[in-house]
Design a protein that fits this description.
Layout: H1 2-56, E1 63-64, E2 69-71, E3 79-81, E4 85-94, E5 100-107, E6 127-132, H2 141-144, E7 146-153, E8 161-173, E9 176-189, H3 205-208, E10 213-221, E11 225-226, E12 230-239, E13 246-255, E14 257-258, E15 266-267, E16 269-271, E17 277-283, E18 288-297, E19 304-316, E20 319-333, E21 338-340, E22 344-346, E23 349-351, E24 355-364, E25 370-378, E26 382-383, E27 387-392, E28 397-406, E29 415-423, E30 429-437, E31 439-441, H4 461-465, H5 468-528
Parallel strand pairs: 3-9, 11-20, 23-31
Antiparallel strand pairs: 1-9, 2-4, 4-7, 5-6, 5-8, 8-9, 10-12, 12-18, 13-17, 13-19, 14-15, 16-18, 19-20, 21-24, 22-24, 24-28, 25-27, 25-29, 26-28, 29-30
Length: 529
């Protein structure tokens, strides 16, 4: 009996042991499943955080300091890789209600790899838009924008990250030159050892890069350069390196060629000395130099900015014959010329209160437009006649047809002035004078309603007979008339007498000459016989 109990006890204990083992195995598997789920959840959360970080690392997008000239908001940030040649397209938009003229855009370069992702010597390009139509909200963005393409070479040591690219822009709006700063971004992918813009694997940028020379500004003397004139330009250049000097520097200034084909191409500026080069022995780190050269502008240049390239060649440390190019834009103005034709004043004599018509033509003989042309007349004896001719294009004619009124009698030589004024694109007013001749006299008034006059304008005999004052007035007048008549008669008689005596003298001389001729003939006949 005890043996059977022992067997059953062993069987029950074995069963309980197997059951506990199964429970432990199930618990372990459940815990493993929970751990796996937790790990997967943790990985998902980590991935989500990474996505958020990537979203926070996006660039802020393009911007502009001008409300009129800006970049399209559809601009997609390009990605560039170290060592490759890339095309950066700026989608420029004119948001102004008027057209923009002579738009010039050029990049701001830097020698530091942390500020500029491209090779500095590839950043000398300047792009221009001669005329930019006004914004039309009825068109889509692809139709109203204009893309400016810049070709750059990405630096081999470029850092990974978003670089800010800045472009200086100038344009003419409503005759005024305005400036803007266009800003956009590129995402650069560099070598792993080059690090990132956040500061990983930072190196000594200035020691690893070559010194560069940039143009920081320029001035002209005179300040306004007119076509056909000679001017002096001073260009400011700077060595951007803080540690390395540049030596044996040669600058060559060349105007960009204008013209559509090879036969019509020309340079807007030429050096007066015949040489466009300036040599500088050395420029210390961070130092600046002024380049001064005298140039002349072609006489037939249109009124707009023209680009002057500054080509540079220099040595630095162990490197020789480094090259770079920068550009400056010089606005050229045209002298305004205005002439007038012969004036017609009809009539040329008027009385006070009367009017005369003045007509003449105004010719624009210059190469630029005359704006807000006014003609006003000045003189003590006249009023009125102001005429507005508006805009006169180059080579066009404006006609003046004005009426002026006599205000007072002329007290001088009868000269009045036509003052012709006009404006240039900057609103500067120029005035020229034209002299005209017009005489104004007082109006003669006769009162024929006086009872002293009859119907025929003659004084009544009754008034003459009954007026002692009239007799006193008439007698001196009659005496003067008699004296004048007598003097005239005497003068005529004397003149007639002298004329008659002269005629008789001429007849006597004629008869004497004939007698002498007859005598000569008789002598000749006698000699023959």
């Amino acid at each position: 009996m005890r043996t059977d109990m022992s067997k059953w006890t062993k069987r029950i204990m074995a069963f309980l042991t197997a059951f506990l083992i199964m429970l432990c195995a199930a618990g372990t598997e459940a815990l493993q499943v929970q751990a796996d789920v937790g790990t997967a959840s943790g990985n998902d959360e980590s991935g989500g955080e990474t996505t958020d970080t990537e979203e926070d690392d996006e660039d802020p997008g393009p911007s502009s300091t001008s409300e009129f000239l800006s970049l399209s908001d559809t601009y997609q940030t390009p990605t560039v890789t170290y060592g490759e040649t890339v095309l950066i397209a700026l989608p420029v938009v004119n948001y102004s209600s008027v057209p923009l003229k002579d738009v010039i855009v050029k990049p701001r370069i830097s020698n530091l790899v942390s500020e500029w992702p491209f090779e500095p010597n590839s950043a000398g390009a300047t792009k221009a838009i001669k005329s930019f139509p006004a914004y039309d909200n009825k068109k889509n963005m692809e139709e109203v924008r204009q893309d400016l393409g810049f070709v750059f070479v990405v630096r081999s040591d470029v850092k990974s990250g978003y670089y800010k690219l800045e472009f200086d822009a100038t344009y003419t709006r409503d005759g005024m030159v305005e400036k803007a700063l266009l800003t956009t971004y590129v995402k650069a992918v560099g070598k792993p050892e080059s690090g990132t813009l956040d500061g990983d694997a930072e190196g000594d940028d200035e020691q690893s890069s070559k010194p560069r020379i940039i143009v920081t500004g320029f001035e002209t003397n005179p300040g306004q350069v007119y076509a056909g004139s000679t001017f002096t330009i001073t260009i400011h250049v700077q060595n951007t390196s803080k540690t390395a000097p540049v030596t044996n520097v040669l600058f060559d200034m060349q105007a960009k060629e204008e013209g559509k084909d090879e036969d019509s191409k020309f340079a807007a500026f030429l050096p007066t000395s015949g040489s466009s080069s300036v040599y500088v022995d050395a420029i210390a780190p961070g130092a600046s130099k002024d380049l001064v050269i005298e140039m002349s502008a072609k006489a037939d240049l249109a009124q707009k900015p023209y680009v002057l390239d500054v080509n540079m060649k220099y040595d630095a440390k162990d490197a020789v014959d480094l090259t770079d190019t920068a550009s400056v834009s010089i606005p050229i103005l045209q002298e305004q010329r205005c002439e007038t034709g012969d004036a017609e004043v009809m009539p040329s004599d008027i009385t006070v209160g009367g009017q005369t018509n003045i007509m003449f033509d105004v010719y624009n003989t210059g190469k630029t437009t005359l704006y807000n042309v006014w003609v006003k007349f000045e003189g003590d004896s006249i009023t009125g006649g102001d005429s507005f001719l508006g805009t006169i294009a180059s080579g066009a004619t404006g006609s003046v047809d004005a009426m002026v009124t006599g205000a007072a009698a002329t007290m001088d030589d009868g000269k009045i002035k036509a003052m012709i004024s006009y404006e240039n694109e900057s609103g500067v007013v120029t005035t020229i004078e034209k002299e005209l001749e017009l005489f104004v006299s007082e109006e003669m008034m006769e009162d024929f309603s006086d009872p002293a006059f009859g119907m025929e304008g003659e004084m009544g005999m009754e008034e003459l007979e009954g007026s002692g004052g009239a007799e006193k007035f008439i007698l001196p007048v009659v005496l003067v008339v008699i004296v004048l008549i007598a003097a005239a008669v005497v003068f005529l008689r004397i003149r007639k007498k002298k004329k008659k005596e002269q005629e008789e003298m001429e007849e006597d001389l004629k008869a004497l000459k004939e007698t002498e001729k007859e005598a000569e003939k008789a002598d000749d006949w006698a000699n023959k016989w």
